[in-house]
């Protein structure tokens, strides 16, 4: 048996060092060294391989929302998020054994003491560990549970180039959608979305005053399903263009989360409630915690589609902890298409 290398005395992690006035920037974070965590009873020590950078961190910096599972981040706190790593120590007796690859939510650090109950061993359904960081399960839940996608439906994905939306278009197509429309603010992203991500048409979100008209042109018969990561003007436009009986799955609210003049915790929007009644539109908020069975179902389905070439995992890899804060700034600014992950050696 090959001997494992000794563990280092120190681990590095990304901490919030000051509260931003507006959107967070790299100078609000710092990579710091800390003594290697010692797992307590019921914990295991995980060496992280990669972790996800997600824009909703803005919502919990300095505040957060009630009734969500994410704690507020204050100066001195280490950031968190979905991660994949390898168990390198387990004081036992339970939990995954040393050498097990696991998924958990203690990213943004090289080594993490993780509750054994919070570690999910990778089941081998996907080809690479990084693919377990896909947000496709949320799109899949929105389409299958939230909106009840039916064969032939016209689907509009608001925010079609992000970590959820970049997978949602092809997923909707593979689940039987007749036409799939997305939105983005970037012409370059729009070309990729129609070229390889399963979208029939893409509506650019600027200028907002014409968005509803542009959506109507892309969906001349109206939309049956909305998967919404944005809210705001795009949600209002979806109500205008909806067919009778349309089903809306509300996944996120980036219009408020990433508003420079707000705190990321509200996303107000004015809707024509008369249209909701007349068209019998249903709206349902969807959280990744609502349907615990979806993740395993998605992994099996996603893995099969990946191996057959029917879908891809659009993502960007940022190498090293030192680039993590910059990556968050770029994600909030909409620079990248797909899921952004930081990889650690």
Automatic annotation (TrEMBL):
<feature type="domain" description="Enoyl reductase (ER)">
    <location>
        <begin position="22"/>
        <end position="342"/>
    </location>
</feature>
<dbReference type="InterPro" id="IPR020843">
    <property type="entry name" value="ER"/>
</dbReference>
<dbReference type="InterPro" id="IPR036291">
    <property type="entry name" value="NAD(P)-bd_dom_sf"/>
</dbReference>
<dbReference type="Pfam" id="PF16884">
    <property type="entry name" value="ADH_N_2"/>
</dbReference>
<dbReference type="InterPro" id="IPR041694">
    <property type="entry name" value="ADH_N_2"/>
</dbReference>
<dbReference type="InterPro" id="IPR051397">
    <property type="entry name" value="Zn-ADH-like_protein"/>
</dbReference>
<protein>
    <submittedName>
        <fullName>NADP-dependent oxidoreductase</fullName>
    </submittedName>
</protein>
<dbReference type="InterPro" id="IPR013149">
    <property type="entry name" value="ADH-like_C"/>
</dbReference>
<dbReference type="Pfam" id="PF00107">
    <property type="entry name" value="ADH_zinc_N"/>
</dbReference>
<dbReference type="InterPro" id="IPR011032">
    <property type="entry name" value="GroES-like_sf"/>
</dbReference>
<dbReference type="GO" id="GO:0016491">
    <property type="term" value="F:oxidoreductase activity"/>
</dbReference>
